[in-house]
Design goal:
Shape of chain B: globular
Largest sheet of chain B: 7 strands, mixed
Radius of gyration of chain B: 14 Å
Radius of gyration of chain A: 14 Å
Largest sheet of chain A: 6 strands, mixed
Strand content of chain A: over 45%
Largest interface: A-B, 28 and 33 residues
Structural class of chain A: mainly beta
Oligomer: heterodimer
Number of helices of chain B: 0
Number of strands of chain B: 11
Helix content of chain B: under 10%
Structural class of chain B: mainly beta
Chain lengths: 117, 115
């Protein structure tokens, strides 16, 4: 069963505008973590933001924020004031449980974001 | 700060050959893992380790072996390469941040082609 779903294969946004990338997840664990990664065309995986299942406030990191709706099992990434350098593939990922499962992430299939000038 | 170092960056193998992808981290992280990324897809877990001497299978373990004799190193062995193993391989290390946040660091990847 697919545990991370990213329904937007591709998204386009104008420079300086905000964009939301969707992510829904499925888990029966009470403790889990949600991540967003950026993968530019050069191929490296760049960590953007993390949200723990018990965190009451939405995570923010600079221009990135995570819209966490636990009841709906969604963890959407919001990028404010898009820049040309934001053009990349974006992956949502989940870590289920705690402790010994800490090294296992499940990834979605990604959303290709293109920022237009 | 080296972080996670993967070698080689590129490799071409013939079907049936064996090889080892190297992964080393210098952050004293407890956890290490290997993922593969096929075109247009997300990363899938091959094997992982929660500490020296402890390894376990991930989602797609067939055709790969791992061992973890030290905290720093986590090599991935392809026993008999097949074209289906053509992929980009990422090694990652992580730790339990105590507050529930896990810091994951990925290597730069190894692009493997099996012909």
């Amino acid at each position: 069963a697919q545990k991370i779903t990213q329904t937007q294969p591709g998204m386009f946004v104008q420079e300086k505008e905000a964009v939301t990338l969707d992510c829904t997840y499925d888990t029966s664990d009470q403790s889990y973590g949600l991540f967003w990664y950026k993968q530019p065309s050069s191929g490296e995986m760049i960590f953007l933001i993390y949200q723990g299942s018990y965190d009451e406030q939405n995570a923010t990191e600079g221009r990135y924020s995570l819209n966490f709706q636990k009841a709906r099992k969604s963890a959407n990434l919001v990028i404010s004031a898009s820049q040309l350098g934001d053009s990349a593939m974006y992956f949502c990922a989940m870590r289920e449980g705690r402790e010994t499962s800490g090294s296992r992430l499940t990834f979605g299939e990604g959303t290709q974001l293109t920022v237009n000038p | 700060n080296a972080g996670v170092t993967q070698t080689p960056k590129f490799q071409v193998l013939k079907t049936g050959q064996s090889m080892t992808l190297q992964c080393a981290q210098d952050m004293n992280h407890e956890y290490m893992s290997w993922y593969r990324q096929d075109p247009g897809m997300g990363l899938r877990l091959i094997h992982y380790s929660v500490g020296a001497g402890i390894t376990d299978q991930g989602e797609v373990p067939n055709g790969y072996n791992v061992s973890r004799s030290t905290t720093e190193d986590f090599p991935l062995r392809l026993l008999s390469a097949a074209p289906s193993q053509t992929s980009v391989y990422f090694c990652a290390s992580s730790y339990n941040g105590g507050d529930g946040g896990y810091g994951y660091t990925f290597g730069s990847g190894t692009r493997l082609t099996v012909v």
